[in-house]
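Ticket #4471: structure output looks truncated?

Reporter: J.K.
Steps to reproduce: submitted the chain below (294 residues) through the standard prediction queue, then opened the result file.
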Amino acid sequence: MPIDLELLHTKLEDLRIKYDHLQYLDTDPICFPKKYKDPLDIEVVSFISCLYAYGNVKSIQGFLKPIFEALGPSPYQTLRGGNKTLLPFLKNLNVYRFQTKKDNQIFFQTISRILQNLQTQSPLFESNLLDEFGKFNEKNSLPKFQNFWEEEIKKTSGKKTLSYGLQFLIGKSTAKSPKKRLSLFLRWMVRTSYPDFGLYQRIYPNQIPFPLDVHIQKLIQILGITDRKTFGSKEAFLIQEFFKKINPNDPLLYDFYLTRVGIIERCNAKYQKVVCEVCFLKEVCLVFGSATGN
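Returned output as attached by the reporter:
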């Protein structure tokens, strides 16, 4: 059955209005960069937060909160300070899921070295996402960015290959994965409206791939947007193209709000009366319709 775009748009707007409040930022890793005002701090903290944004919210926050507390009022300045400010911080780093303590030390040493070599102006990393013509390329820009970090981490480690944990953290530049954590970083950096920061001026919201985290993957299936079972970089742009039908200039507008359905409302793409009956999306949800005969 074809999707009623007008009805879907209406329901998405209802969802946006519901979650368009600061109180809901604590349910998302964007809560960390939101604590800073300096664009340099925001960009660095955003990049770190997005790369470690895998696992459940409690685990992510439990790992990142002590890190940003230890980095002080300006994580950018602390990381840029080199060994004098960094050594006590590195010593106290912990394991996080696939990353060993050594992995995390190498990663933060790499960021520190890169920041020391960059000019002290925002944005820091946007140029690494652009091609030789200064444009964002949907096929090559994210792999190029990953490759940059892969090579820099190798310099820090002194090894020709990355450990499993570091490779997972950055992602493989040659993989056809949706690159969801880097896509999320791009959303934060590129979009100018709530809850994002709009620090990057040479990349546009309608160019970046949709961040296909597990919540979005479930929701786009039960909303009838796709029937695909696997998700890669191709699907990230296909979903972006779908949402362009609703908002051509800002297809990622509803990403934050849709993920609240999974994180806060505990939608698991199966009918649960206590969840589904009060959901703002129930009128456009295939699961709800099938369970209730609507």
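Triage note (M.O.): checked the attachment and the full token line is present. Residues 135 and 202 are 7 Å apart (CA to CA).
Status: closed, working as intended.
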